[in-house]
Amino acid sequence: MISPTKPGQHAEESGWYVVYTRPRQEARALENLRNQGFVCFLPTLSAERLRGGRQVEIAEALFPRYLFVYLEVGRSNWSTIRSTRGVVRLVEFGGVTTRIPSSLIEALAEQPVQQKKLFEVGERLRVIDGPFVGIETVLQRLYKTPDGEARVIVLMDILARPQQISLPVCVVRKAA
After folding, report:
1. Distance separating alpha carbons of residues 55 and 143, to the nearest angstrom
2. Of 32, 36, 37, 129, which is most buried, counting CB atoms within 10 Å of its CB?
3. Model pTM above 0.70
4. What is the pLDDT of residues 64-99, one digit of tens each?
5. Burial of 173 (0-12, 13-18, 19+ CB in 10 A)
6. Cβ-based neighbour number of residue 38 at 10 Å
7. pLDDT band at 157 (very low <50, low <70, confident <90, very high)
């Protein structure tokens, strides 16, 4: 149980705490906290994204703007966390920094890296460029050409017949 503290003070227990970071600076905050000797954990997932018309796989934070830090009472200098680049503050509830159960951190650490696909087979897509602009389609397959270009095969009704059409990934988006 967390010891009672005055508003704005820290709990008096060693354990895992949540750090709130600046937008898209979780990795920066993680690196800077580790450089100061803190033990940190940033759960990530593998996500497919479009960059410059190409499909790339990136690591992205499972909880955007949050990471976990292990703090020891009497050993960790909690005040340096606020001034760490990428960090906004420690998360508080009722003016008290709240400790996260170690079992939660262990469970997150044991999970395999999740994958977030750009598109899923069977998903409805809308063509946003080219001769088929504005047409809604259904994704059949996602693949890469030998030169590395990401393409999709979509099912489209043309002349009252379903046709499989190959398009670059950059000309389709998820249908609303």
Report:
1. 10
2. 32
3. no
4. 999 999 998 776 678 889 899 999 999 999 888 889
5. middle
6. 20
7. confident
